[in-house]
Amino acid sequence: MESFRRDILSELENWRISPVRKPLVLRGARQVGKTTVVKMFARQFDQFIYLNLERSEEARLFVELKDFSRLVEGIFFVKSMKRSGGSTLIFIDEIQQVPEAVNTLRYFYEDAPDLYVIAAGSLLETLLDEKVTVPVGRVEYRVIRPVSFREFLEALGEQQALQQLNKIPTDEFAYIKLWNLFHRYAIIGGMPEVVSHYIRFNDLTLLKPIYESLLVSYINDVEKYARNATLTQVIRHTIKASFAEAGKRIVFQHFGNSNYGSREEGEALRTLEKAMLVHLVYPTVHPQLPILPDYKKSPRLHIIDTGLMNHFVGLQRDMITTRNLQEVYQGRMIEHLVGQELLANHFNVLFNLSFWVRQKKDASAEVDYVIDVEGNLIPIEVKSGAVGKLRSLHLYMERAPHAFAVRLYGGDLTMDRVHTPSGKPFYLLSLPYFLASQTENYVRWMMNN
To answer: CA 308 from chain center: how many Å?
Structure first.
């Protein structure tokens, strides 16, 4: 399991050695491996104290010991450890169960800077009492997402393939192997338990119970997210419907062919977004920074993991036999997976995807993603076809204050100098899908070349 999560472990190490370290709150949906990652990270400390606040005896410490110094003393006493025992990592898991525990994070920062403190919990914003707030300026945040393609290669032990993925540019002789490995990753997705099970048994047919158990665990969590029984039913429907709607621009009214109105579905989708089970990706209408999402326009729906979508929509069987991932699900699957890979490189909890639209009567245009690279808002199209047929990309570049664009597709790496219909020249970097996670690095490479 350790080889799965080297990227986030590196991020945690940066936090550990920071001279301005604050207590760290780890965000992420259930089942993405937050607890496992922290336990692996703990190996470099002299002492590790694990507190799960779903256990009443450990939750009681934060409820009954109001004085902070006594709380710290009580934690070490209960775990039979000494405060002077060397470097100590304290992990407060399921912190949302005890709102009082959230308030103590500020005191760890102010009064116990020698202790390394990490907290994790689901849907903190919704579950905490209105009178209890996360200490502003006293904590840091990181997000853990599903396993990326790079982590997938590590998990498989494909070190040479990983080296080629990280090499810019990748050697052409590595393409066939990377394509095959990426195809496998595209089918099963990045949920840690699914990846672990696949590596152990190397059998896609054995993964069905894992996908089903993940869905059941998310649905069973609904009661904790919902403020009343009606919203519980709406969220249950919304979770199931999200798999079929993923990768599409959606409207809240009657989402998933339901009878629910926009208010109910809007609250349900935003609740699931706080739980990090879905992302509502809103468009921008400008080709330059800052990215200003237009919340008046319909968002595109992304779910936590493409593998879950593939399973519940029934795509995996077709994906095994196809050679062109662009043909799967009218291109929605690979576009969704590219978004997942773009997210995987960012541990900032506020980072989100964005895309560009131009909506005029009888002349709409849409670019799949836009990303900030060196202060430039770079457009990314996810599609095959001739360079000259990327109409929306050309319309974007007509308005862009720079000359760089990216296309992810089922071909080889190329860099072309092309022109918009009005004659504006720009550079188009075409990357194979398996390099999606390296897009930002390749854009810098393009700029330098």
So the answer is: 14
First vs last C-alpha separation in the chain: 38
**Helix 99-111 vs helix 56-64: crossing angle, to nearest 10:** 60
Alpha-carbon separation of residue 63 from 68, 93, 106, 176, 278 (angstroms): 11, 15, 16, 58, 33
Tokens read off for 355: 């895309």
Contact assessment for residue 65 and residue 59, using Cβ atoms and an 8 Å cutoff: no
Contacts of 392 (CB under 8 A, 6+ apart): 358, 365, 366, 367, 381
Instruction: With 0.85 as the threshold, say if the pTM is over it.
Output: yes
Contact 275, 364 (CB under 8 A): no
Q: What is the DSSP letter of 290?
A: S
Tokens for 438, please give them.
């390296």
Other C-beta atoms closer than 10 Å to the C-beta of 332 total 19
Amino acid residing at 442: Y
Q: Which two tokens stand for residue 6?
A: 């080297």
Interatomic CA distance for residues 302 and 248, integer angstroms: 8
pLDDT mean by block of 10 residues, the chain; 449 residues: 74 94 93 93 96 94 94 96 91 90 92 95 60 72 94 94 97 97 97 95 93 92 80 94 96 96 95 92 95 95 97 91 88 96 90 90 86 96 78 95 97 95 96 97 95
Two tokens, residue 396: 């974007």
| Structure tokens given for 399 | 């308005």
